[in-house]
Amino acid sequence: MSDHEDVASTDLESLIGPGAFGYFAGGAGAELTLRDNVEAWSRIALHPRVLVDVSERDLGTTLLGRHRPHPVVVAPMAYQRHAHDVGERGTAAAAAATDSLFVLSSQTTTSPADVADVLGESDRWFQLYVFRDRAISHDLVAQARESGYEALVITVDFPVAGWRERDRRTGFRVEHPIALNPSGPPLTTEQLFAMHDPSLTWDDIGEFADAAGMPVVLKGVLRPDDAERAVDAGAAGIVVSNHGGRQLDTTLAGIDALPPVVDAVGGTVDLLVDGGVTRGWDVAKALALGADAVMVGRHVLWGLARGGAEGAEAVLRQLLAELDSTLALLGCPRAVDLDASYVGRR
Amino acid sequence: MSDHEDVASTDLESLIGPGAFGYFAGGAGAELTLRDNVEAWSRIALHPRVLVDVSERDLGTTLLGRHRPHPVVVAPMAYQRHAHDVGERGTAAAAAATDSLFVLSSQTTTSPADVADVLGESDRWFQLYVFRDRAISHDLVAQARESGYEALVITVDFPVAGWRERDRRTGFRVEHPIALNPSGPPLTTEQLFAMHDPSLTWDDIGEFADAAGMPVVLKGVLRPDDAERAVDAGAAGIVVSNHGGRQLDTTLAGIDALPPVVDAVGGTVDLLVDGGVTRGWDVAKALALGADAVMVGRHVLWGLARGGAEGAEAVLRQLLAELDSTLALLGCPRAVDLDASYVGRR
Amino acid sequence: MSDHEDVASTDLESLIGPGAFGYFAGGAGAELTLRDNVEAWSRIALHPRVLVDVSERDLGTTLLGRHRPHPVVVAPMAYQRHAHDVGERGTAAAAAATDSLFVLSSQTTTSPADVADVLGESDRWFQLYVFRDRAISHDLVAQARESGYEALVITVDFPVAGWRERDRRTGFRVEHPIALNPSGPPLTTEQLFAMHDPSLTWDDIGEFADAAGMPVVLKGVLRPDDAERAVDAGAAGIVVSNHGGRQLDTTLAGIDALPPVVDAVGGTVDLLVDGGVTRGWDVAKALALGADAVMVGRHVLWGLARGGAEGAEAVLRQLLAELDSTLALLGCPRAVDLDASYVGRR
Amino acid sequence: MSDHEDVASTDLESLIGPGAFGYFAGGAGAELTLRDNVEAWSRIALHPRVLVDVSERDLGTTLLGRHRPHPVVVAPMAYQRHAHDVGERGTAAAAAATDSLFVLSSQTTTSPADVADVLGESDRWFQLYVFRDRAISHDLVAQARESGYEALVITVDFPVAGWRERDRRTGFRVEHPIALNPSGPPLTTEQLFAMHDPSLTWDDIGEFADAAGMPVVLKGVLRPDDAERAVDAGAAGIVVSNHGGRQLDTTLAGIDALPPVVDAVGGTVDLLVDGGVTRGWDVAKALALGADAVMVGRHVLWGLARGGAEGAEAVLRQLLAELDSTLALLGCPRAVDLDASYVGRR
Lengths: 346, 346, 346, 346
Fold this sequence. Notes:
The structure is a homotetramer.
Chain A (H helix, E strand, L loop, with lengths): L1 H6 L2 H7 L1 H8 L6 H11 L1 E3 L14 E3 L2 E3 L3 E3 L13 H10 L3 E4 L7 H8 L4 E5 L5 H13 L5 E4 L9 H6 L2 E2 L12 E2 H5 L8 H11 L3 E6 L2 H9 L4 E4 L13 H12 L4 E5 L5 H9 L4 E4 L1 H33 L12 E3 L1
Parallel strand pairs in A: 4-5, 4-13, 5-6, 6-7, 7-10, 10-11, 11-12, 12-13
Antiparallel strand pairs in A: 1-14, 2-3, 8-9
């Protein structure tokens, strides 16, 4: 919490300007969910085990059948060149340097191919918004496939724009979103978000999965019944998420939504969770409650804003060091062995 | 909450004067219920559904057998000319412009006929206080009937005045309450409220319903047993309400009182709820918990105070836009389909 | 709460001096119970009933077999001449003027006879501390009996002094406690409280009851098992109390302790509750939860400090007016008809 | 809480310097557990009993088969010469003067023999960290045995260092830790803590117990299953502890962990609890919930920092006086008779 306050403070605003700052830092409505996303982690208490040999720790997990050295995933985030000139290249480089799975946003300000160049052999997924003009989305998928992105993360909680009052106040305009407006004059987020397709349904998911020829992960599921439908629709993974508190205010936190989703579909698909993760012990809690991995967004972005690729990398390194320390102190040297016995309610 | 703080701030006080401001902004006693009315909404979490076609939204509901384009109702509020010179004509014009059902207070500072002129074809109800001098109340009902008011909202939670310390401090005096003191010198609220009949009982309800020749809605019910008696007494609707926190401090919030009332009488009469509504997602929560519509008072009045009819209209338009957005983001395009699965406790 | 803060603020300190202010305002330890005593009332929500004829209200109750016009009792409070020169005469006059039962403290700074003169025909009880030198206590009982005090309120939660850090800081010294040190130099509260008998047991209660020849009320019971023992010991009444938060910090609030006591002995003896009462609706909550009456201490004392007898009377009048208003707004015109259906948890 | 704030305030920082202050005052991560350790006590309400003869109080308890005059134990704390020049000699003298059991840390800055000289006949235990270089630990045990330490408190919650951000900020370096670096240049805590053995398991406990020839107490257990393993491993006692909130942030508080541990192993081994104890009534709550004794760390250390041996002694005397007062006011004159009936949830 204090951490979040800290990184979301005034000097970032002066660093990247009020428009971009408001866009990245802000949430929907009165931002109650934005705050709850962070506080929700602190309502979960850790119950450490003692006298376990923790001289070797293994942070590894498995996502979509591939081994990952650790469960931290860089969340898809739009318009990263508004946080730092280096943009998506910076977070991608940080991901590659830390063996973090990188997820590129459809609303990228750098092309999928250019980001892939930075990533090299490092794993990557591509996040997809389905736009009213579906050709744009299909073209993005084609670009992603060509550049070696291995899964498609379809965001399902953005049929329309969230109610974001900061953007209205600042009049923030986006430059260079390569898919939607590569060369025109800057657009407001309202204009950009109006291009999202509000008629997207379960039927469309299969279509995109087939066309993509890669596994599909659905991002933005909060209800166990929707999780079951996701499994029925052939999803290989689910991101339990409220979109960083940016869509609908007072929506429950991802980590609070996770346990019923685990009860409904745990073990049949990979589960990720996001929202308010700033500490390695948050990651451990997510795993203990049944997640296979955790997406981290703003926390990495503030690193990018402060120090480019190095700044983002430093954030990821600290998070991983904290997770490593947490496994040792929990007496659970292998991340995959975390279970509900390690957590309780505060 | 922040919103409420915002609109109830000092500049409104300087705009309309401390007496009127204290009267409109204030609540009973230490104003714990006044605050709880707003906070109660934030204790309810939203559980959105995804991948529903929300390209078309329908905010419509049905009240007293008539279709309404949306569930937002302008609550009856006294003495509106103290908020702005245009008074009830302003809120009525805002209601008409936004297809909001308008409820005129017995304590109006504009005649029912003049308000009806502004409303034109727009739907309207009339709120009734039963005064010790019942002739005054009967005369008001007659005026309402003549001017096309379609239902009688009898307020049942005002046998005596609430314990309002702000009015005592400011010595606020009311000008032009047309029913009680059309031409005399200004009276204090204490003097005006002393005209209310504290002996009103269930037996009287039928009498007024018969005399009015229109459906009766009882406003101010909080207990399921009283809701059952209201149904037995022939009420067509109930407003679950604590009178905006203005009557008895530490009374439970309307939205907290709603679920037991729904359990007791849901489906047999129309249910409205009020108290602290400032956001479109508050409205969605009320519907999800079983209300058919929501009354909005102070929030509209502050719009009136700031900008007359246009100010009140802007408030209503934002509320409806937020509700529309909420339906899209909840994956529930028709307001009438909201149910308890969309909400939980935070 | 705000109210309490308000009356316990700096100007009272300058009015009566830091020593007396610390003594009266303070509580034990970190004063968590002192605050909780006030907050506990606000955790109880009121559930009003509507359409009841409340044109006539009856605040009456019965205590020790005698009708009382209302349930507000002036609590025994020590050293009142340190709050105002008029001392116990002032609160007694206020009690008489408002038909409030008055309870005189053993630690009075005015003789029982002089207080009785002020009270005239008004009802009075006498509070007894049992001192190591029991002759002092027996003498006090004799004085009380002679001056028409009708019951003996034996305080049972003061075997030793509470841990009061304000008194240590200020070095407050008491003048004129007539029973313990009528003419010597001022003593600290530590010196005075060391005179209490820490060996007092249930066996002693009967002895004092027999000697007094009047009904005995035990003040300071918080546990249902102790309440049962009080009944077995012949007590006619019990005051559920944590001594105003002045004895043992983090002790539960009287109103939170009341329901189990009611379950254990309700109906067999009279039950009073105290601690943090500042509002008429607090009194109504106590009655709804099973109390027969409520003791009010500091709230009356601050009235005394500010305005002597008139100040104390004004406090009592407002409290009674608020209670009257609460009965009307709860739809429960007779105080004795309040029951648990009128309250819930917030 | 206020108390804790008070003692952890700026003047201590200027007294002992920011490095030492940060080391002693700080906790892991965002210090949520550090705060919760103190707040957890205030969530427990006391339920006093009345009319018990409390003229004589007996604070005595039994630890490892030996009678103790009271249940307050001075917790093992590292590097005490950084709090005051007199270092461990000061707290040992305070313990001896107040008949408090003293536990010397492996990370002492004074030799076990020199501390034993100060303690004289007073009871003492020795806390053991198991280092990678086990010879160091075995040598410490030998020194302890020779100097009359009667039990070995093996800390089991320190396989690796906690995530302590204050030390990183201040760059605090430790002088004179006699076991690890008696004569070299000062080391950072990171360097010192890297000497701890992260491979320590249950099997090692028996080895050390056998070598020590004295009873073993395990410090840092929070889970009932670990408590059962401790009993199986032959432990004579358990300290339920989160290491003063210094190891893993958001770990549950010791007092919240105690009841399940009591359910699992109560009566078969001695149970101590620590974390955030600053008041005598905290001690009483621990005993009521099943502890045999309570360790007090920082609270004593701040006394040492402020006033050397006299300062530490004053803290212990006040704590014991508060406990004595609490027993009287709870109506439970013998500490060993405290049980769950005296406590509840606030």
